[in-house]
Specification:
It is built from 5 helices and 4 strands. With 201 residues, the chain is an alpha+beta fold. It folds into 2 domains: 57 residues; 99 residues, Threonyl-tRNA Synthetase, Chain A, domain 2 (2-Layer Sandwich), CATH 3.30.980. A hairpin with a 2-residue loop joins strand 1 and strand 2. The chain is rod-shaped, with a radius of gyration of 58 Å. The protein starts with 22 loop residues before the first helix and ends with a helix.
């Protein structure tokens, strides 16, 4: 007996298809994560940049305040230096015009003979030949006539011409003890009496 084979092209079980790949979903998720990370990085950069900018502004303000206070102190220093310079100039003018009497006595100490003495010293400022000069006058007493002549020669020496001008001995009179009284007068070179010149020398 021949076997009967039933041939049918209709599947008895439903045809199953393979599972769909989730590759598309994974790519979209990856892009979303990247965008999120980029956005997060951008926000962090903006915040850090803002903080750094604010800090730089604060430092600049501090620098400006420091420079401002420095300018104020420099201004005060300049004003004090200008005032000091003005005072020094005034002091120099006073010293340049200040007349010291002590050089006259130094001169007399060197030029007066041992046997001559002076008293009643006086000096005045006078205008002579359009020049301001100092006039001195003293009463003196010498041992004898020869001493008076020697004293007159001493005052007339060349080495004293830079100090005195027109030395003159007058009003000679003989005293009871044989001594001679006289009046000595002369003009003193003003430069010799300037205080600053004497300090320098």
């Amino acid at each position: 007996m021949e076997a009967k084979y039933q041939t049918s092209f209709i599947p008895k079980k439903p045809v199953t298809t393979g599972q769909r790949s989730s590759g598309g979903m994974s790519l979209l998720l990856l892009i979303s994560i990247l965008i999120f990370l980029v956005s997060l990085g951008s926000v962090a950069y903006v915040i850090l940049f803002k903080q750094a900018y604010i800090k730089s502004i604060e430092e600049a303000q501090k620098t400006i305040e420091t420079n401002k206070s420095g300018l104020v102190s420099d201004s005060l220093t300049i004003e004090s230096l200008v005032e000091l310079d003005s005072r020094i100039n005034v002091a120099n003018k006073l010293l340049s015009n200040h007349i010291a009497v002590s050089p006259i006595f130094n001169f007399l100490q060197q030029a007066t003979l041992k046997s001559v003495r002076f008293k009643n010293f006086s000096f005045t400022s006078v205008n002579k030949d359009s020049t301001k000069k100092v006039s001195i006058q003293m009463s003196g007493q010498a041992k004898d006539w020869e001493t008076v002549a020697s004293q007159a020669d001493e005052f007339g020496k060349t080495e004293w011409k830079k100090i005195i001008d027109e030395p003159k001995i007058s009003n000679l009179s003989l005293n009871s003890d044989g001594s001679i009284s006289f009046i000595f007068s002369a003009y003193i070179n003003p430069d010799y009496l300037i205080y600053s010149n004497n300090v320098t020398n």
